[in-house]
Each structure stands twice: as structure tokens, then as C-alpha cells.
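User: Could you write out the 3D structure of this protein bound to iron/sulfur cluster? I've included everything you need below.
Assistant: Certainly. Input first, then the structure.
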Amino acid sequence: MKKICVSEACIGCGACVSIANELFDFDESGYSHPLKENIETKEEIELANQAAGACPVEAISIEEEGEKEEKAA
Ligand code: SF4
């Protein structure tokens, strides 16, 4: 399972929402947030990766869930 995160770097350009509107939507402030944090299917992961690649400010990250957790020193 993977987890979608949208950081505060989001500028609300809408690219992720237009690529993957089942995974991202705008909040009241006009910034994107993930509709589904946990994604499992190949299709969802591919869409999330496309959206992350299209984000002009690299605000989207897709992290492995339930595997190794890196701890900040
Ligand atoms: S593509 Fe990036 S900057 Fe644009 S709305 Fe989505 S997260 Fe925000």
C-alpha cells in the first residue's frame, strides 16, 4: 500500500486534479489534498505517479506505507 501526501508547497494549479480527480480535490482554500490517502491498485498508483510528475512544485509525494519507516536523527 502507498500513501499520497500533498505538501504546503501546493500552488493550486489544478494539474493533479485534472489528471486524477478520483485521487485529488481542492480544499476550501483552493489547494489540492488527497481524496484517498492510501492507494493500492496499479491504476491508482500509476495515476498518482503521473499527477506527482505533473506537479510544477513537486508538492506530491507517494510514500510506501507499512514498510521501513525512516526515522529522522
Ligand atoms: S499539481 Fe501540485 S501545485 Fe498543482 S494543485 Fe496539484 S499539488 Fe497543487
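Residues 19 and 59 are 15 Å apart (CA to CA).
User: Perfect, thank you.
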